[in-house]
Write a structure and sequence with these properties.
The longest helix is centred in the middle third of the chain and has 42 residues, at about 125-165. By secondary structure, this protein is mainly α. The protein is globular and about 70 Å long. The chain starts with a helix and ends with a helix. The chain has helices spanning about 1-15, 15-35, 40-60, 65-75, 85-115, 125-165, 170-205, 220-245. It is built from eight helices and no strands.
Length: about 250
């Protein structure tokens, strides 16, 4: 059992996505802890914010290589909604995918400008990248909301079929029960993704220009909590996806 856990951890650390999720979780838990201990241990709080800042910078640098993988995902893996059957979900996925693709070069320009590699101001490019992230999250929230509505309707129909159309011992009953389980798993995943998006949107708004909603106003404890919740939910979704792939 212990060997299996160690192997799973090593596999996670060796993968780019797994390592990024670990760094993101540590980044936001550091911000959260810093906010919680700021009054009783200010020196340690500063150290934790330094850790969070360096991990955030590391993730920005690693994203310099994400343009082509994102393009491949959008074109070949359904990132632009090619596999979606519902027209509205397809359109929302298409818009989100395009924004996500454009996010990377914008962030690259911001990073290059901040490090004096190009002679332009970096602040407006960082703000643009955060704004694009926030807009992408809004489209994903709408997409999840539509999916939840569709899933609820389908679950309601399947449950009605189970109760009225098929006897418990029939093949039709077993098929409907299997379909119900699949739909309920999809609904749970959509709910968790929606919660994750709202947590991320809270962070994105905080990093927006002052004067917009709660921009620059969240204490570190709240910002860290939102980011930690989002990171844990992202971890959960990734592990669920890995388990599904192993059972195929």
């Amino acid at each position: 059992m212990a060997a299996s856990k160690v192997k799973q951890t090593v596999t996670l650390l060796e993968s780019y996505r797994g390592r990024d999720k670990i760094m993101r979780t540590i980044q936001f838990t550091s911000i959260l802890t810093s906010g919680l201990i700021n009054k009783v241990a200010p020196a340690n709080a500063v150290k934790l914010k330094t850790v969070a800042g360096q991990l955030g910078l590391c993730r920005v640098i690693l994203r310099l290589f994400d343009d082509i993988p994102m393009l491949a995902y959008n074109v070949f893996a359904g990132g632009l909604g090619q596999k979606e059957k519902d027209p509205l979900v397809r359109v929302l996925s298409l818009i989100k995918g395009c924004i996500d693709q454009l996010f990377f070069p914008v962030e690259h320009i911001a990073w290059a400008a901040e490090n004096k590699l190009i002679d332009i101001g970096s602040a407006k490019w960082w703000l643009l990248s955060v704004t694009m992230w926030g807009i992408s999250l809004c489209f994903d929230i709408m997409r999840c909301a539509v999916q939840l509505l569709k899933q609820h309707q389908k679950i309601k129909t399947v449950r009605k079929d189970l109760e009225t159309e098929h006897p418990p011992s029939s093949d039709g009953h077993d098929a409907d029960a299997s379909e119900l389980k699949r739909l309920e798993e999809q609904q749970k995943a959509s709910k968790l993704q929606l919660l994750k998006d709202f947590c991320d949107l809270g962070c994105a708004i905080h990093w927006s220009a002052p004067g917009f909603l709660w921009a620059q106003k969240l204490p570190d404890s709240v910002l860290g909590l939102l980011g930690t919740m989002s990171s844990v939910l992202g971890f959960h979704a990734m592990l669920v996806q890995q388990r599904k792939q192993k059972t195929k």
